[in-house]
Specification:
- With about 270 residues, this protein is an alpha/beta fold.
- It contains six helices and nine strands.
- It is about 30% helix and about 25% strand.
- It has a five-stranded mixed barrel, surrounded by four helices.
- Helix 1 crosses helix 2, helix 2 packs across helix 5 and helix 3 packs across helix 6.
- The chain is globular.
- The chain binds hypoxanthine (HPA).
Length: about 270
Amino acid sequence: MLDKIKETANFIHSKITDIPKTAIILGTGLGELVNHIDITDSIDYKDIPNFPVSTVEGHCGKLIFGNLGNKRVMAMQGRFHFYEGYSMQQVTFPVRVMKALGITTLFVSNAAGGMNPDFKIGDIMIITDHINLFPEHPLRGKNYDELGPRFPDMSEPYSHRLINDALKVAEEKGINVKQGVYIGTQGPTFETPAEYRYFHRIGGDAVGMSTVPEVIVANHSGIEVFAISVITDMGGLEGVEPEKVSHEEVQKAAAAAQPKMTEIMKGLINEFKE
Ligand code: HPA
């Protein structure tokens, strides 16, 4: 694994002269932020050694380098999901490469189903914490001390200072944001009504099929994390007739809400201290 990380990082180094310290992973239907990046370089995942290739609809699979406001950034347009059949090591490989490249802060977005009755479709939720319900842990197996500790602390998986910065940005821009706990599950089924209720009762405000593996590996590597969910459906409110959820709907709702998400990410990335 160490050799592969090095090989991929060396390849990127050979293509890109000015490597950023800030990285962004964009979720389903949330690629619009890329349009605000002054792109200097772009590499297709398929051309990057050891990189898996993204398969799901709505993800185009490119590593983008450029300037967003006053920061130089690297953005993953499209991510790897466990449900696509990738191993946890493959899903989180890009984060390992980020660390090897010298990335210190990671910004993540995703689409998620809302379970908190105060939420509605189109809301933006700043992730304050998560519950990992994936069936496999990305750090299972041999630990490489060069990459991080065997038993990593997870007391602040999402950076408090970045959450506070984001709340300030949202307030300045007059954007209403929620905060909450994200539950990560493998999918690819959306939840049954009973599962949505269960996830809410155990402390989840939103549920999705991504983010948690990458955030765990970022924490293991000592990368600071900020993440946002866009609420694309309200699956299972207690006492409310369940509604059907589809990928198309999720993409549509994500597209409708993404200007707000983009504004916050853009503002935050511009403001935060690298
Ligand atoms: N459940 C799981 N993943 C999701 C959902 C959901 O309701 N919405 C968007 N991604």
